[in-house]
Amino acid sequence: MAALSVAIGAQHGLRSSGAARPAAPARTQPDESLSKSLTGCFALGAVAAVHRKRSLTLREWRGERTMEINYYQLDAMKASNIRKKTETMLEEGAAVLKGCAEESAQQKMLLLLSSPAVKELLVAMSRLPVFSHEFGLAFKDDLTVLSVLKQLKYFWSLSQSHLAILLERLAEQLRLEHAAAFQSLLQELAESDDHVVAIKDLKMPEAVRAFYGENAIHLEAADPHGVFPTSIYRQCDGLTLATEDSATIESVMSTTITTTIKIARDVLQPSNRLLFDVYKPLGRCVAVVDDKVEAHFGADLEKYFEINGIEFVKLVFSGNEVDKNLSNVEQILLALKENWQARHEPVLIVGGGVIADVAGMACALYSRNTPYVMLCTSLVAGIDAGPSPRVCCNGFSYKNLYGAYHPPALTITDRGFWRTMHPGQLRHGVAEIIKVAAMADLHLFELMEKWGKETVATNFGTLGGLDDPAFQEVCDLIIGKAMEGYVRAEYGNLWETHQCRPHAYGHTWSPGYELPSGMLHGHAVGTCMGFGAYLSYKEGWLSEVDMHRVLKVISDCELALWHPVMEDTVSVWKAQIGIVEKRGGNLCAPIPRALGESGYLNSLPERLLHQRMHEYQELCSKYPREGRGVQEHSVDVGLEDPMSKKDSIRDADRCVVTPMDRVVVQLGAASQSTSGAGARAIGEAARIVDGIDEMVTKYSSQPSEALKNVSKRTAMTNPLWAELMGQGNTSRLMEAEMISGQAEAQLLQLLLKLSGGKDVLDIGTFTGYSSLAMAEAIPEDGTVVTLEREQEAKDMAKANWIGSPHASKIESLVGEAHDLLICLAAEDKSFDLVFLDVDKPGYFGLYQMLMDKNLLKVKGLLVVDNVMYKGEELSGTELTKNGQGAQALNQGLLDDPRVQQVMLPLRDGVTLVYRES
Ligand SMILES: C[S@@+](CC[C@H](N)C(=O)[O-])C[C@H]1O[C@@H](n2cnc3c(N)ncnc32)[C@H](O)[C@@H]1O
Question: ipTM of this predicted complex?
Answer without folding.
Answer: 0.99
